[in-house]
């Protein structure tokens, strides 16, 4: 039986192969946190250079900044907010006598990185189309964004203080221990 000329099966197979290959590389990049973030910061620098030299696309940059702020709030927030909902699952301890429960993010680090990188790629591609270059007085947008950032971070930090959680993994605590006293006494001889 012959397939018609416009048959979507080869196209679907191509999309499936591309999607599988893309997922393979995402899976390979997962454990390389520093490399992933270095690439994202390089992309951010490239985007900033592009916007600086084109002298435009400030609305795109403002939208990108608001989206990144929204992602940051999700990254810093606990999965279950004690102010808004009650859950049978893990929650933040409220008193010193409460059992320790680990901090679980609303937005995991990998999804945070992936969303930022994808947003930067989309914003960078938008800078090649003049339809997105809306004329605007950029200092006002910058002031709006800074005020929004300060107010949002203040609220988030007060929430962290109120519920006593730190959204960063500082790592395993290291103890210095005592230095060998025998080595110091031998150096005096």
From TrEMBL:
InterPro entries xref list: Rer1 (IPR004932)
Keywords, alphabetical: Membrane, Transmembrane, Transmembrane helix
Transmembrane segments: 59-77, 112-130, 136-153
Membrane topology per record: Multi-pass membrane protein
Subcellular location: Membrane
Record-given protein name: Protein RER1
Coiled coil as UniProt keyword: no
Taxonomic placement: Eukaryota, Viridiplantae, Streptophyta, Embryophyta, Tracheophyta
Cellular component GO terms, alphabetical: endoplasmic reticulum; Golgi membrane
GO biological process terms, semicolon-separated: protein retention in ER lumen; retrograde vesicle-mediated transport, Golgi to endoplasmic reticulum
Presence of keyword Disulfide bond: no
Role this protein plays: Involved in the retrieval of endoplasmic reticulum membrane proteins from the early Golgi compartment.
Species in which this protein is naturally found: Rhynchospora breviuscula
Principal location class: membrane
Family statement drawn from the similarity comment of this UniProt entry: Belongs to the RER1 family.
């Amino acid at each position: 039986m012959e397939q018609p000329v416009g048959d979507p099966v080869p196209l679907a197979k191509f999309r499936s192969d591309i999607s599988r290959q893309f997922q393979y590389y995402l899976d390979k990049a997962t454990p390389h946190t520093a490399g992933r973030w270095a690439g994202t910061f390089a992309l951010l620098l490239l985007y900033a250079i592009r916007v600086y030299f084109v002298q435009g696309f400030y609305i795109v940059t403002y939208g990108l900044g608001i989206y990144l702020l929204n992602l940051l709030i999700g990254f810093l927030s606990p999965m279950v907010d004690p102010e808004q909902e009650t859950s049978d699952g893990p929650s933040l301890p409220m008193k010193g006598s409460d059992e320790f429960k680990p901090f679980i993010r609303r937005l995991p680090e990998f999804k945070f990185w992936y969303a930022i990188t994808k947003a930067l790629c989309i914003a960078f591609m938008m800078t090649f189309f003049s339809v997105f270059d809306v004329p605007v007085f950029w200092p006002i947008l910058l002031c709006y964004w800074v005020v929004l950032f300060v107010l949002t971070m203040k609220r988030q930090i007060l929430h962290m203080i109120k519920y006593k959680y730190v959204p960063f993994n500082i790592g395993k605590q290291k103890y210095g221990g005592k230095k060998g006293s025998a080595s110091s006494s031998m150096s005096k001889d």
